[in-house]
TrEMBL record:
It is an enzyme of class 2 (transferase). The keyword Transferase applies. NCBIfam families: rimI (TIGR01575). Gene3D superfamilies: 3.40.630.30. Belongs to the acetyltransferase family. RimI subfamily. It catalyses: N-terminal L-alanyl-[ribosomal protein bS18] + acetyl-CoA = N-terminal N(alpha)-acetyl-L-alanyl-[ribosomal protein bS18] + CoA + H(+). It comes from Micromonospora sonneratiae. It comes from the Bacteria. The gene is rimI. Residues 1-146 form the N-acetyltransferase domain. PROSITE patterns: GNAT. Keywords: Acyltransferase, Cytoplasm, Ribonucleoprotein, Ribosomal protein, Transferase. This is [Ribosomal protein bS18]-alanine N-acetyltransferase. Acetylates the N-terminal alanine of ribosomal protein bS18. SUPFAM superfamilies: Acyl-CoA N-acyltransferases (Nat).
Length: 146
């Protein structure tokens, strides 16, 4: 597995992962294009064949805040440490940029992701009611300082 910069040609494979994992709440191609156009820090995890197995993004908001936009791993590649590696790479980029506060949103019913984030010192700081649409699922806002 290799982490590399997310490029426009990764979007099609990313959309297939989005559809499988998030269904009607998936991101669109336009949303990924917008993230790339705005210069956000995005990575993909590629397998030996060069196929996308996961992706993650970090939106930096100067002077010292960043948001983890998404972290997703293809279903057949989950539980192999890819999500952890993607998160560690985002945290390293935030540290490189001197970011003091990193935030993210995670579905309140996604306990595995919450445990992953808690293992990296993210703590719950709020709830966004009905954040994920159309399911109306709440989002837990988590933050890591320092």
């Amino acid at each position: 597995m290799k982490l590399t910069r997310f490029r426009w040609w990764h979007i099609d494979q990313t959309l297939a992962i989005e559809a499988d994992l998030f269904g009607v709440e998936q991101w669109s191609a336009a949303m990924f294009w917008n993230e790339l156009a705005n210069g956000h820090h995005y990575l993909v995890a590629l397998d030996d064949a060069g196929d996308v197995t996961g992706y993650a993004g970090l939106a930096v908001q100067p002077p010292d805040e960043a948001w983890v936009q998404n972290i997703a791993v293809r279903r057949d590649a989950q539980r192999g440490g890819i999500g952890r590696q993607l998160l560690e790479a985002l945290l390293a980029e935030a540290a490189r940029r001197g970011i003091g506060r990193i935030l993210l949103e995670v579905a309140v019913d996604n306990a595995p992701a919450q445990r992953l984030y808690a293992g990296y010192d993210f703590e719950p700081v709020g709830i966004r009611r009905g954040y994920y649409q159309p399911s109306n699922t709440d989002a837990l806002v988590m933050m890591k300082s320092g």
